[in-house]
Amino acid sequence: MALSRALRCCQRVFSWIPVIIISSVVLWSYYAYVFELCFAFTLSNTYMAYLLIFHVCFIMFCWTYWKAIFTPPSTPSKKFHLSYSDKERYEMEERPDAQKQILTEIAKKLPIFTRAQSGAVRFCDRCQVIKPDRCHHCSVCETCVLKMDHHCPWVNNCVGFSNYKFFLLFLSYSMIYCVFIASTVFQYFLKFWVGDLPNGPAKFHVLFLLFVALMFFVSLMFLFAFLLIDLCGSYFWCGLFNLKERSCFSEAFSAPVFQNGPDRNGFNVGLSRNLRQVFGEDKKLWFIPVFTSQGDGHYFPLRTLCESENPLLANEGKWMEDGGSDEENENGPSVIIRMES
After folding, report:
1. Catalytic: 62?
2. Which is catalytic among the residues 38, 57, 138, 152?
3. How many CB atoms within 10 Å of residue 127?
4. What is the rounded CA–CA span in Å between residue 14 and residue 32?
5. Looking at the keywords, is Acyltransferase present (predicted)?
6. Residue 102 CB contacts under 8 Å (≥ 6 apart), including other chains
7. Residue-wise pLDDT tens digits, 215-269
8. Rounded-to-integer distance, Cα 123 and Cα 111, Å
9. Quick one: which of 5, 59, 237, 299 is 20 to 30 A from 202 by CA?
């Protein structure tokens, strides 16, 4: 037991290494750009403008990165956990078919559309919770995460319902940060090749700034493009790439299963609504890392189904009257998204 606890402690310590690496590179880039580039050379009006734009990009990058790291993943509310009596009844039953029937009876009180590949209600034995739609268990965080996308080692956190917007903004501002540095440093890279750049420590900082900025930009561009394709759905991106809206790594490789079978496009409700689900209704807040996503993360609008077509939603009103989602108390007011045909 003590050895297992020590291993888990070491794992948690080592999991922060990628974050430390990114933070160190960013801090070095700040020093190299501000002190070695702007202050080492003549500080003209052009450099004052560079410094202003640089600090705006730097602040937004740090803000979004902080939010992506330290926003805890949203977990299913208590309504999706088995009660003591249901848990006892489920564990005492040894027949798989009987266990499946018990979960089906419990799920009738919950807003659930998706099923497991076998057709059974999705249930996590480790968390003892009936999984809401798009919810998956993260083996790193050791918990079920609402609308789980993937576990990202570079933020040491699960990307899911609570921080999906922050992660997208983090990628966006990271690329803007890299592009700005590369575009303003490129002229000194040219001077280096023709021998016009004076010798000194600033020379090497400037050269490394360009290479690091370009390297990070290319890496981030592929991940951001993949997430953007997933988010925007079939209206534009899928016309080019023949892809559908889905949650990046969890649904891109395993289509959600509905009562009528698997459907990779099941949660695609169009470009506009897909964007509003993540960024909210107020477009003035889209580019600011404050939580504005719609819903409470427990259920999402579907492309083809409506509430009346799903028997599992017959008691949704009762589910809400009995207390609704505990996420409302934990993460602020929730916005209920009604299904539309």
Report:
1. no
2. 152
3. 18
4. 28
5. yes
6. 86, 89, 90, 93
7. 999 888 888 887 777 666 543 333 343 334 444 455 656 778 887 777 777 787 8
8. 14
9. 59
